[in-house]
Amino acid sequence: MGDRTAELQERLREACAEGRPLRPVGGDSKAFHGNPVQAEPLPLAGHAGIVNYAPTELVLSARAGTPLEEVQAVLAGQGQQLPFDPPVFGPGATLGGAVASGLAGPGRPWSGAPRDVLLGVRMLDGRGQLLRFGGEVMKNVAGYDVSRLQAGALGTLGVLLEVSLKVLPRPACEQTLVLELEREQAQARMRELCRQPAPLRGACHHHGRLYLRLAGAGASVRAWRARIGGETLAEHNSFWQRLRDHRLDFFQTERTLWRLSLPPNTPRLACEQHSLPDWAGAQRWVISDTPAERLRAEVTRAGGHAEVFRRGSGEQAPFQALDPGLLALHRRLKERFDPRGILNPGRLFPV
Amino acid sequence: MSDSPRDTRRRHLARRFRQVLEAEYVLTRESELRPYECDGLPAYRHLPLIVVLPADAAQVQAVMRICHEEQVPVVARGAGTGLSGGALPLEDGVLLSLARLNRILEVDPDNLCARVQPGVRNLAISEAARPHGLYYAPDPSSQIACTIGGNVAENAGGVHCLKYGLTVNNLLALELVTAEGERLRIGSGGLDGPGYDLSALLTGSEGMLGIVVEVTVRLLPIPARAQVALAAFDDIEKAGQAVADIIAEGILPAGLEMMDQPSLQAAEDFVHAGYPTDAAAILLCEVDGDNEEVSEEIARVRQRLLDSGATEVRTAQDEAERARFWAGRKAAFPAVGRISPDYYCMDGTIPRKHLPRVLRKIAAMSQEFGLRAANVFHAGDGNLHPLILYDGNAPGELERAEAFGGRILELCVEVGGTITGEHGVGLEKIDQMCAQFPPEELQLFHAIKAAFDPRGLLNPGKAIPTLNRCAEFGAMHVKAGDLRFPHLERF
User: Fold this and answer.
1) What are A125-164's pLDDT values in tens digits?
2) Which residues pair with B260 in a beta bridge?
3) Whose C-alpha in A200, B211, B356, B468 is 20 to 30 A from the C-alpha of A109?
4) Which of A136, A303, A304 sits opposite B416 (nearest CB)?
5) Residues 26-55 of A with CB under 8 A from B
6) Using CA atoms, how far apart are residues B155 and A69, in angstroms rounded to an integer?
């Protein structure tokens, strides 16, 4: 545990000089995410430790290799949490990996994604230059927001060394309501609730049931529980965690698992025969053998995009192809951060 | 009559623009150009070569194609309310006004979003959403006038950022016209888009990377109720501690604002908000949400404030009193304007724990420069607005005010903060960028700009200083300090 900046920098400089591709690795729990990369692993695991945590400033800074579990335990000790509730797909998941993947838990429509709370980064670019962007303050418009750009970039623009995040108090009270509703009625109910100032922090439909997570002041949660009705779910946290980490039975499949990102009120699509709508309908997990091209065309027509989250059989590209103009811009940006193209080449878009 | 090369250039460009825009939307006469000579920072003024007012995205593309071919620089402008000179025209450049792209294209309550053109005013979005029980959260103080395109360019904030975020947290998608006139769609109809998060990079990029021609914003349900508490303190450090205590209580206020004695006095004299003028500082703490939630939280806030040493805590009894409490804060800038011929507004952000130290140093600098300062503070998110009072007609006072301001910003960087929280770098703070960023980071910023705008035509000379400029600034900085105030102590 400690600061391995100098050693990591040296390895990057060498790799850059030799043009050798590298794959930054935290806990290696999300290696399935994105295009497979043929590259030497660059482990961040030992580069760990919370560097600064000031609960009343609502800021935490930690090295990228710090285990998520450790961060969450320290925050919980002060009654706080990571607002984006990162999914955990295996032991050893790190904070850096959670930010670089850009993934967020079931509270995403209300509590945001990593990019929403990322205040600053220290990183190495593809030349091994040590760079710092943003900081530990909530508002900062000096220079381009290079920090937030790293969230979801899958380590293709730089190796994250340290991240500073806005953290928030845990809600005083949380409850989950379960209503027996078919998909269409559930969607209508979610739509109607999202338009009201209800303390919603989760809304998904699974096996003929609508699950609603309420979180906030006790009085507010109780009042809305009475208004909404339904059954109160015991052990409700474990349900949302199993959804977040893909441990519900729905996800136990060898077939291709798609993630659809859509306007929340999009009616059920033809490709959604076997589907679990989360994020009040804005994120839909779909198990489907529909040919990728047809599925993507349908999702695009509806205003969204589709990614292969876990590949079954077949060779579908994980991410939706970018329009030519946008792809060219991505390549130019990548080249500015990583001129030799050694950082996770091809993981997010074709080289 | 002989034409200067500038006139010839102007005539040539006007002819080309009139092939793609109606003639009346290509302005070339001095009287027509004059209203565009500055933005909300009138200390800097330039007449642009030409002003164009396209009607839609296709015309913006056509204008940009011409500018690209002619290699003429372009400064985009919304309402021109920016406070950092970001929309200051270039004398040899085109000023591209987005004022005519002012339509709300769609309010989609079921998908909690609105699709609008960049020239739509911030407040107009909330007004259009209100019949659906929804609103657009970021509320910069200029919200009746400023446009959403400008808000994106500056990543505008407001008094509710701590709970509801900045512009960047409330956008779903952008349409961009590039320096070459190409149109790109960033984001999707969902909560994320494929590829890099370019909307995060574009938000706050001050018109340096592209021209935003359409914005899809996220709408939120209007909270059922909001309630504000006003607390007086006999010591500004206690007020600072009270802010930390409220956060430690697990409360996330919708707004948490602080005013020091000079600013609250000025505000009280101006709008009679009922502020206790004998206080060293006041805090305004607003909570919003359900009726039940607000009742519970405001009681906790009140108790916390008293425990933290407030000499008095008042909670607004009705909507009229709540509006009155806020009226003083919202009128703080013009109120200070009444007690001084001119004032200069700064915009640093600091880690909140350094507030007492920063305020003490600002007071010392105020003595040193012989200029008064009043402080208003978005206390919840650490964004400090010191207002430096000066008289532009008194020889040397503007320069002194600027030097004072520059020192405040460097102090913010010193304590781990930033030179700008929400007003942008523009031209105003470009030298202080050298204090915040080493050459490697500045070089990467230039590289990012080049990836979007290889010819450097979009708002050149703003936001990111060249390395040469920083080298010169570094040299000049020491010299000017020694030359201007040799009799002053340094600490």
Assistant:
1) 999 999 999 999 999 999 999 999 999 999 999 999 999 9
2) B281
3) B211
4) A136
5) 54-55
6) 33
* DSSP code per residue over B273-318: ----TT-SEEEEEEEEE-HHHHHHHHHHHHHHHHHTT-SEEEE-SS
Q: Is A302 an 8 Å CB contact of chain B?
A: yes
Say yes or no: B185 contacts chain A, CB-CB below 8 A: yes
A125 touches chain B (CB under 8 A): yes
Of B75, B101, B97, B95, the residue nearest B86 (C-alpha): B75
For B484, residues 6+ apart whose C-beta sits below 8 A from its C-beta are B399, B400, B403
Q: Where are the beta strands (DSSP E) in A85-242?
A: 118-124, 130-134, 159-166, 168-169, 173-180, 200-206, 209-216, 231-232
Please report where in the chains the tokens 């806990």 appear, as a residue. Answer: A27
> Is A329 in Cβ contact with B425 (below 8 Å)?
no
Q: Which residue has the tokens 């005010």?
A: B401
Distance CA A251, CA A238 (A): 15
Rounded CA separation A251/A286 (Å) = 9
Backbone angles phi, psi at A174, to 5 degrees: -135, 140
ipTM above 0.95, yes or no: yes
Residue A185, pLDDT > 60, answer yes
Q: Which of B161, B201, B353 sits opposite A145 (nearest CB)?
A: B201
Nearest to A304 among B134, B190, B201 (CB): B190
What pLDDT score does A1 carry? Answer: 67
Domains by residue range for chain B, with CATH? 5-97 (3.30.43.10), 104-221 (3.30.465.10), 225-335 (3.30.70.2190), 343-355+364-374+388-490 (no CATH)
Band the pLDDT of A236: cuts 50, 70, 90.
confident
Indicate yes or no: CB of B201 within 8 angstroms of CB of A170. Answer: no
- Per-residue confidence band for B2, with pLDDT thresholds at 50, 70 and 90: low
Strands B383-390 and B342-345: antiparallel
Which residues does chain B have within 8 Å of residue A323's beta carbon, measured at their own beta carbons? 184-185
Which among A54, A142, A218 has CB closest to B425? A142
CA B361 to mean position of chain CA atoms: 24
Interface-testing mutation among A115, A141, A284, A344, with chain B (most B C-beta atoms within 10 A)? A141
Report how many Cβ contacts below 8 Å link chain A to chain B.
269
- Report CA Rg, chain A: 21
Q: What SS3 state is found at B169?
A: helix
| CB contact (8 A) between residue B191 and residue A113 | yes
Task: Measure B28 CA to nearest chain A CA, in Å.
Answer: 33
Flag whether residue B153 sits within 8 Å of chain A, measured between CB atoms. Answer: no
Distance CA A148, CA A42 (A): 22
Is the distance from CB of B352 to CB of B377 less than 8 angstroms? no
A120 and A333 Cβ atoms separated by less than 8 Å: no
Mean pLDDT of A69-98: 97
Give me A42's structure tokens.
């660059």
pTM of the model as a whole: 0.95
Q: Do A152 and B111 touch (CB under 8 A)?
A: no
Q: Of B38, B139, B20, give the one whose Cα is nearest residue B81.
A: B38
Six token digits for residue A187: 């969607």
B223 neighbourhood in chain A, CB within 8 Å: 197
| Structure-token pair, residue A350 | 């074709």
Other CB atoms within 10 Å distance of the CB of residue B294? 22
Host H or E run for residue B18 = helix B5-18
Alpha-carbon span B238 to A250, nearest angstrom: 54
**Chain B closest-CA separation from residue A299 CA (Å):** 10
Is residue B91 within 8 A of residue B32, CB to CB? The reply is no
As a whole number of angstroms, the distance between CA B203 and CA B309 comes to 40
* Nearest chain B alpha carbon to A193: B221
List the single residue in A with minimal CA-CA distance to B440. A131
Q: Does B330 score more than 90 pLDDT?
A: no
